[in-house]
Specification:
The complex is a heterodimer of chains A (384) and B (451).
Chain A (H helix, E strand, L loop, with lengths): L4 H14 L8 E4 L7 E7 L5 H4 E2 L6 H4 L8 E3 L5 E3 L6 H5 L3 E8 L8 H10 L11 H8 L8 E4 L14 E3 L9 H11 L3 H13 L9 H17 L2 E8 L8 H4 L1 H23 L2 E7 L19 E6 L8 E2 L20 E2 H13 L3 H8 L14
Parallel strand pairs in A: 2-9, 2-10, 6-12, 6-13, 7-8
Antiparallel strand pairs in A: 1-7, 1-9, 3-5, 4-5, 6-11, 10-11
Helix pairs in contact in A: 6-13, 7-8, 9-11
Chain B lengths: L2 H9 L12 H9 L3 H5 L5 H20 L4 H31 L2 H13 L12 H10 L7 H9 L2 H6 L11 H6 L6 H10 L9 H11 L2 E4 L3 E4 L9 E3 L2 E3 L4 H13 L1 H15 L6 H14 L3 H9 L15 H11 L4 H6 L2 H7 L1 H6 L17 H4 L2 H18 L6 H9 L5 H9 L3 H10 L1 H4 L2
Antiparallel strand pairs in B: 1-2, 3-4
The chains are: A alpha/beta (384), B mainly alpha (451).
């Protein structure tokens, strides 16, 4: 008897259906209404430690607050800031003026420091989470006539609130097996711990799936995502969004941050290569996170949820080679709640500046519809 | 929510949230009330399968007359496809009903569907199992076991699966002519699995006699079940000391009713019910109470169910069982807030990738048990590394395809776990980096997978 017959038969139908690119999470938007410029928004889920990625080595309080982390070798940017060595692959872009870094920035989210609330606000683009559950990239599409579903793509398997809403968009997930972050694996182990049967099965299950997630090369993890995105952006799409995880570095940060940074670096350099010089020249990639992390290193060589952080802007259309934003300082009095980097700008302002520069959207639309409640600062010169 | 309501949701249903009160009387009312789920989320029965079988038979005839004939191949493909489409409808309806409830009735339907397991042995047979459930099991879950047994044993799905359709009395008119004979398969499983149980005191001679008695039960492609006197082994048969004379269908039906009322049958099925619903090693007092209700009522399954849910030992706090993959998927969809209508509205591809395909990965291919004894019960048979990997994959990936935006994991945990939410899980949900992983942790957690 062949018990697989039933499923094999059903499977035929499933395969044809599987070919439909209609599933999950990098978000892409098309040309008609947006002209030729491209925007990629990468959501760094888990709260990237901006102070470790773009290190203020010139600030006298920094090394004192981070006795372990501040010792690691880093790459000089401008005499004051140094780039984490994990992003060394981006130095050529920095030197070519194609990488800009924004420091001491955050959304208006404060105090509760919950990943999900923080990510929701980052993607909703509102001041306080009020209003419906739609994302700021979707409201951008709603504000531009002539946009089609091909204009914007959500790529990957994380839900992308940033692109959801009334305007039609596409979503697609590359075919991968179990995508569970390193942290997800640890948490799953933790959850199963008190039930012997599950503890054993989960432990072995995670070993079984090791080859499918986490142990492959960084290229295995991100190339499919980038290549698909780049292909769409070379075509009709103008906007894309996806997530990178792994940033919640509560312990052993020096090691824990390596992989996510390697992924981020590869996403940027491969995107440049896959887009080709012409399209890259018209592209801005913004990598943003829900909040930063505590100034002080904690007792486990990590950092905890904080407030102000950093944002990366890469692309041929970026005026880079600079660390942007007003530096607040790191003395106790300079900090937010005496623990976190003080935000000196609204992260939404940088995004709004990018949209204005790329698509010529006027201030009324940006402050009224896309980022309700935002008061844009003067031209910040982020975009060429 | 009381502890008992939670126990009812997990042990006798497809999990939280509950649709209404869930005391013993409420559960019984779910079982005995009008079958609204079947009307709302329709499946199909033998009447829908027969036309498919006719096309298939015609295709085979054409192929036999002209080997390699293209029209014959085309007709065959069409029939296989139609059968497959029916099977998908059946799988969808089963899931929609489980998600939409009333849950206790659907759990009982799944129990009996497993008790009378039928597995397609070729692609052309895929439509049969759901027809058996619809025609022979559902109508009797609150009726008499003897009636269910008769309905199952005269259903083409069972007669085909356990080879009864081919069995011929060696001395019957057709048997003598063809030199073919008896097939004991159904008779043996009928005693071993469906009624008395393997430990009961029947002998090979009883199997042989029962097989002779069952001759005549067969399947005619154009009509489905048929009793063919030309296949009947002449003369009376004696099964478990009772003689059944006459060579008609009545003798077979009488024997089935007698088997249904045997004390060994009551004991066997009472044990299975307690093991399936309550514990892999159930309290003997619970089994005895179910058995006594069976005996006293003559196999009235409503009374039997009342004895199960009415016994204190069925309400112990320990969640000792593991949700089988079908229960897992149904419970997860309920937790995510999907309705039966949502399931029925799913296109085939997304449905297959949400239910039958991952169920197979979890170790329970839909309609694909290893044999007529159905699925194993022990928690350890399901919570294996491979099975757990598949559950984790489902938990992390499928919700995002079905629900946009993803619901808040903490809310799903509260809604689907109630007081069972452990401190560990609550903490982990808050510590997860993304909503997707937080939700995945809830669905992969022990407390969600136990019942």
């Amino acid at each position: 008897m062949d018990r697989r017959h039933f499923l094999r038969g059903l499977g035929g139908a499933a395969c044809s259906a599987a070919a439909h690119p209609l599933m999950t999470t990098m978000s892409f938007a098309e040309g008609a209404g947006l002209g030729d410029n491209r925007l990629v928004v990468v959501i760094l889920r888990g709260a990237m430690d901006g102070l470790d990625v773009v290190q203020p080595r010139g600030d006298g309080s920094f090394a004192h607050a981070r006795p372990g982390l501040a010792l690691a070798p880093a790459l000089d940017l401008d005499g004051f800031f140094q780039l984490h060595a994990g992003l060394s692959g981006l130095m050529p872009l920095w030197q070519a003026g194609e990488l800009g870094l924004v420091h001491a920035t955050s959304t208006p989210y404060r105090d509760k420091r919950s990943h999900f609330d923080g990510q929701d606000l980052l993607e909703a683009g509102t001041a306080d989470g009020a209003g419906g559950r739609d994302g700021w990239l979707n409201r951008l599409l709603q504000a531009v006539p002539g946009v089609t579903a091909e204009t914007a793509y959500a790529v990957g398997r994380e839900g992308m609130l940033i692109l959801s809403g009334a305007a039609p968009t596409r979503s697609w997930a590359p075919d991968q097996r179990l995508a569970l972050s390193g942290q997800g694996r640890l948490l799953l182990d933790h959850v199963a711990h008190d039930d012997a049967l599950f503890r054993e099965a989960v432990g072995e299950a995670l070993v079984l799936t090791e080859g499918q997630a986490g142990s492959g090369t960084v290229g295995d993890e991100v190339d499919g995502l980038v290549d698909f995105t780049a292909e769409r952006l070379r075509g009709a799409a103008r906007i894309a969004s996806f997530s990178l995880t792994g940033w919640d570095t509560h312990k052993g940060q020096e090691k824990a941050l390596r992989r996510p940074l390697e992924r981020l670096g590869r996403v940027v350099t491969r995107m440049k290569g896959q887009l080709g010089p012409e399209v890259w020249g018209r592209t801005v990639l913004l990598a943003m996170t829900e909040f930063g992390r505590t100034l002080r290193e904690n007792g486990s060589g990590g950092t905890d949820h904080g407030t102000g952080g950093a944002m990366l802007a890469a692309g041929g259309a970026v005026r880079g080679g600079r660390v942007l934003g007003l530096w607040p300082g790191l003395t106790e009095a300079d900090l937010y709640a005496r623990r976190d980097l003080m935000p000196t700008s609204d992260l939404r302002d940088w995004a709004a500046q990018a949209l204005a520069g790329l698509y010529g959207l006027d201030r009324a639309v940006l402050e009224g519809a896309v980022f309700p409640g935002l008061r844009m600062a003067a031209e910040r010169g982020l975009i060429l | 929510m009381t502890d008992r309501a939670e126990i009812a949701a997990f042990r006798f249903g497809f999990g939280l949230p509950l649709d209404g009160p869930a005391g013993p009387d409420d559960l019984l009312a779910q079982l005995t009330g009008p079958d609204q789920a079947a009307r709302r989320w329709p499946a199909y029965g033998v009447a829908e399968v027969i036309p498919v079988m006719q096309v298939l038979r015609e295709a085979r005839r054409m192929a036999a007359e002209a080997p390699g004939d293209k029209a014959a191949k085309k007709a065959q493909r069409r029939a296989v496809k139609a059968g497959g489409a029916l099977a998908v409808t059946g799988a969808k309806a089963a899931l929609a009903r489980a998600v939409g409830g009333p849950a206790f009735r659907e759990r009982m339907v799944r129990f009996w569907a497993d008790h009378f397991t039928v597995v397609p042995r070729s692609r052309t047979e895929r439509a049969w199992p759901a027809a058996l459930v619809e025609d022979a099991i559902r109508p009797h879950v609150a009726g008499r076991f003897g009636d269910m047994l008769q309905a199952v044993m005269t259903h083409p799905a069972m007669l085909i699966y356990l080879d009864q359709a081919q069995s011929l009395g060696p001395n019957s008119r057709r048997g003598a002519k063809r030199g073919k004979g008896l097939n004991e398969n159904l008779a043996r499983e009928l005693l071993e699995l469906h009624t008395l149980g393997v430990g009961a005191g029947y002998r090979q001679e009883d199997v042989r006699q029962l097989a002779e008695l069952l001759t005549g039960l067969t399947v005619v492609p154009d009509r489905g079940f048929a009793f063919d006197p030309g296949r009947v082994e002449p003369g009376p048969e004696t099964v478990l000391g009772v003689e059944y004379g006459g060579d008609g269908l009545e003798a077979v039906l009488a024997a089935l009713q007698d088997l249904a009322l045997r004390p060994e049958t009551a004991r066997h099925v009472a044990g299975k019910l307690a093991v399936h619903f309550v514990s892999d090693g159930p309290d003997p007092a619970l089994v005895a109470a179910i058995e006594a209700a069976w005996t006293a009522s003559g196999g009235d399954l409503a009374a039997v169910a009342a004895a199960l849910v009415g016994h204190d030992a069925a309400w112990g706090p320990e969640a000792a069982k593991a949700r089988q993959p079908f229960d897992f998927v149904a419970a997860a969809l309920r937790a995510l807030g999907l309705s039966g209508d949502d399931i029925m509205a799913m296109a085939e591809g997304p449905f297959l990738r949400a239910d039958p395909d991952p169920m197979a990965e979890m170790g329970q291919p839909w309609q694909g048990a290893g044999g007529p004894d159905g699925w194993p019960e022990a928690a350890g048979d399901w919570i294996t590394p491979q099975g757990m990997a598949a559950r984790i994959t489902w938990a992390m990936e499928v919700p995002g395809r079905l629900v946009t935006p993803l619901p808040e994991a903490a809310e799903v945990a509260a809604r689907a776990l109630g007081g069972r939410l452990s401190g560990r899980l609550e903490w982990a949900v808050g510590a997860a980096e993304s909503r997707r992983e937080a939700l995945g942790l809830v669905l992969a957690a022990p407390e969600f997978n136990r019942r």
